[in-house]
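Appendix B. One record, verbatim.
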Amino acid sequence: MINKGKGPAKDKYDKFRINEEIDADNVRLVGESGEPQIVETSTALEMARNSGLDLVEISPNQDPPVCKIIDFSKFRFDQIKKAKEAKKKQKIVHVKEIKMRPAIDDNDFTHKVNRAKEFLGKGDKVKFTLMFRGREMVHPELGFEVMEKITVSLEGIGLVEKKAAQEGRNITMFMSPVAGLKK
């Protein structure tokens, strides 16, 4: 961890106070045996020392704070392992952009729609940008027809997240994959 001279480096697991760091008078001790019990902090510390483990404050916002008698290094290792597993299961959604013109040829249109199908199949979102040049701006309805054609071509594969809207010289539309279609 990078420390830029502003005190000791903090780990996100330093939020758990252990043993003598716990400053409450009483703690709610939760263990494997039975119900939680409210005990004096000194008694709980003594119980932890006798069993060769640590007294760890799990939930400091409760009154009294919730503590467990566990091996802190093993607890910390398990927390890091769970965080790594959760990060592996995350899916990062990318936004892929496909640009076209209002006078697009059929083969070019088919190719771009096939690329969009590929992107949507992988779970990515697609932004369609239709660009006008010069006097093409006189006929924006041609651009909206192309966007409608895209919507019809990708029906069942992608959902229109943001309808086609004109923004200056461009018409943009966002599509997201249909849930449950991912390969």
